[in-house]
Fold this sequence. Notes:
Elements: H1 2-5, H2 34-46, H3 56-71, E1 79-83, H4 89-96, E2 103-108, H5 111-114, H6 118-123, E3 134-137, E4 153-159, H7 168-178, E5 179-190, H8 196-210, H9 223-232, E6 236-249, H10 252-262, H11 277-291, E7 299-311, E8 341-344, E9 347-352, E10 361-367, E11 370-374, E12 398-399, E13 405-406, H12 410-443
Amino acid sequence: MLKSTFRKGFNLKCFNWNQTRQYSNYTKMTIFDTNVKTTQKNNTVTNVDDPKHYDYLMNEVADRLADRILDIKDIKCGNVLDFGSRNGALFKYIQEKGAKIDKYYMVESSKELLYRDDLENNNNNNNSNKIKPTKILVNSLEDKIEGIEDQSLDLIISNLSLHWINDLPGVFGGLKRLLKPNGVFLASLFGEDTLMELKDSLYLAEIEREGGFSPHVSPFTKISDIGNILSKNRYSLPTVDTEKITVNYDNMFVLMKDLQNMGENNAILKRRNYTSKDTFLAASAIYKHLYGNEENDSIPATFQIIYLIGWAPHESQQKPLQRGSAKKHFSEISGTSSFGYKFNNDSSIPSILTNENNSVAFSQQQEEGGIQEQQQEQPNDDSINEPFPKTDDFIIKRLDYHGNFHFEKPQQQQQQQQEKDKENDQNNNNNQNQNEINKNKDDK
């Protein structure tokens, strides 16, 4: 999604966060119809008998995301923003796990979904819900959030909502300005491998039945693109990881119905409005043939979840040392290479050092059924002076154990060539003598 959303080499500095953002070397493209997506979310409440029955995936990921939030050491949950909050499932899980929250904002573009559980929460008014969230309704999640000042939030969270954003770089930059220094942005969204089985089946069926194909599954972001956006927006210590959740369904039509009742059906701007029944039946048969589970006659659906975390810059955070501030070169460290390895005398296989002062090394050789500790000094590398092979296309440079390049000197090269010529002459003389001896034996 992101490769087609913005051009290569853009500058993500956002000067005005409003509906007409301005970027240097950056052009926003509209892939998703945000009005259609808002309507689809509203339909999950108005057109579904039991909407909570279809919250299973959102609740599962919200529970895992809440664990990640509270795993952060000394996390401050004072002022929290839930971006794309839906019905507020993440708020419930954070409270259940004991987070201390002062103020909680819920931002959502779907009014029906945002206020869906209000009646139940009022009826179940208990002492555990001490904080009443502030709900903010917006026309689009890409619009500016009114009522929240810059640098006023300790934590921004988002659960499975960012994959419907057209302007991810702009939204990430806007959310960063709302964070206090050392504030945390933590979110989950669907990755590129999500619903790959459904996408492949519809693709093959449409080509076979209609001679062409159109996008039926939303384009999802790559994990590498998420890391790049965090870095371009100057988030500190960005971290991205992923996991896959597989859910089994009776058939493809049950899967598509659940996606619709979740509000996760297709909202691409140039989507196809009509697909024949014959194509869907063919896609269902292909799905079951390629990916079906034989043991229980079901089909799997893969959901790739990408988790991301970034911090607003602060002076207390870890920073790399300035370039050139090292007091000792890696090659000056006795017995180690640039990568922290120690080599044995009779083997080029390194053994990993176990402490900071490089005093103990475990050898990879087993003696008498156990691993014996060795403390041996590194031998001199006599192979440094060996000639390196040359061809017309490339030159292989020799490296010593410290990772330093070694080039041949002209005098050394001439000397080695002379020794090689002498060796060749001696071998030729020996061959001639041997031939004469064999000839004399034949004459006799």
